[in-house]
Amino acid sequence: MAESTVTQELTSEVLKTISKSQTAVVEAIETWASVVQSVKPDLPQMTVPFADKLPTPQDVVASAYDFAEQLLASQRKFAEELLKATAPLLATGTAATGTAATEKKTEKAAK
Q1: Per-residue DSSP letter, 53
Q2: CA 93 – CA 87 distance, rounded (Å)
Q3: What is the largest CA-CA distance in the chain?
Q4: Integer Cα distance of 67 and 6 in angstroms
């Protein structure tokens, strides 16, 4: 259980650090964008053919993360199925090792 608590604390600290870093980057980009907006010249409106058919940046991000979420869920299921499939081997190997060790201790004690 101690390892689990240490792992959870480490995971929590890593996620907090990442969150703080991301917040700092977003604030820096907001500041930069505000400065650029105030000094950029007005540009003529451009029309790109089929622009209305292109996904928005928000759609692209949402789609990419939806895909990543599905991929991660699939990988997790795969890993769990592999663990189930190999569980009999691991249990047998552990049990056999434990039995062999117990037999050796019993033989030594008998001598």
Answers
A1: G
A2: 10
A3: 97
A4: 31
Give the Cα separation of 63 and 54 in Å (integer): 13
Query: What is the value of pTM for the model shown?
Result: 0.60
Which of these, 11, 56, 84, lies nearest to 64 by C-alpha position? 56
Task: Print pLDDT tens along the chain (111 aa).
Answer: 577 899 999 999 999 999 999 999 999 999 999 999 999 888 888 888 898 899 999 999 999 999 999 999 999 999 999 999 999 998 765 444 444 544 555 455 454
DSSP string, 42-55: PPPP---TTGGGSP
Residue 17, Cβ density class (10 Å: 0-12 exposed, 13-18 middle, ≥19 buried):
exposed
Helices (H), the chain: 2-39, 57-110
- Distance CA(25)–CA(21), nearest Å, equals 6
